[in-house]
């Protein structure tokens, strides 16, 4: 099913985007406190999605394995249609400041922070994934929301993750 969707996405997306069917964000803003992801164009949010965060959502990520979602300014720098989750877009964490802070603490900063859909092989109920912070530090959305985010963000879109 996922492979069929990816094949259809590859065929259909260029035509839809060139036809102007989807707005494309020039910024993504994550509001951790309200569990929202906003797609921004020209300073205005045009879409907002509910999100799940790392299982320890309060505070900034400081080290690998702390289950926190980072805070700061990053870039959406690459896409993975074949991840263990339904689509994923990589966030450029850790940046130079994150690496410096981790070095000062004597810890590894971690990495592999993504915006992604639901697990391809779920271990819990759909309700759990919809109502809990369940990731290791990533930002998770529903699969249908992930399709929209995938289509409405471009290469190297800035992302700001706020407390």
Offer a concise description of the structure.
By secondary structure, the protein is α+β, with helices and mostly antiparallel strands.
Count of alpha and pi helical runs: 4
Give me the oligomer status: single chain
What general form does the structure show?
globular
> How much of the polypeptide forms β-strand, as a percent range?
25-35%
CATH architecture: Beta Barrel
Q: How many E-type strands?
A: 8
Helix content: 25-40%
Structural class comes to alpha+beta
Name of the top-level CATH class: Mainly Beta
Given as residue ranges, the uncertain stretches (5+ residues, pLDDT < 50) are 14-19
Helices and strands, in N-to-C order? HEEEEEHEHEHE
Instruction: Write down the Rg.
Output: 16 Å
> What is the CA-CA span between the terminal residues?
36 Å
Q: And the CATH topology?
A: L,D-transpeptidase catalytic domain-like
Number of domains: 1
The description of the largest β-sheet is: 8 strands, mixed
Mean pLDDT across all amino acids: 91
Strand order of the largest sheet: 3-2-1-8-4-5-6-7
CATH superfamily: L,D-transpeptidase catalytic domain-like
């Amino acid at each position: 099913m996922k492979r069929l969707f990816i094949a259809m996405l590859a065929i259909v997306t260029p035509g839809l985007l060139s036809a102007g069917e989807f707005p494309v964000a020039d910024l993504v803003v994550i509001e951790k406190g309200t569990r929202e992801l906003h797609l921004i164009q020209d300073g205005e949010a045009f879409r907002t999605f509910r999100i799940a965060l790392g299982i320890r959502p309060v505070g900034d990520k400081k080290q690998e394995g702390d289950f926190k979602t980072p805070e700061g300014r990053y870039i959406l720098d690459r896409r993975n249609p074949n991840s263990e989750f339904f689509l994923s877009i990589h966030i450029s964490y850790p940046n130079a400041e994150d690496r410096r802070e981790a070095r000062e603490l004597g810890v590894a900063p971690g990495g592999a922070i993504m915006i992604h859909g639901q697990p391809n092989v779920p271990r819990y109920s759909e309700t759990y994934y919809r109502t809990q912070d369940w990731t290791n530090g990533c930002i998770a959305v529903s699969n249908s929301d992930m399709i929209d985010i995938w289509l409405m963000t471009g290469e190297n879109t800035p992302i700001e993750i706020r407390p």
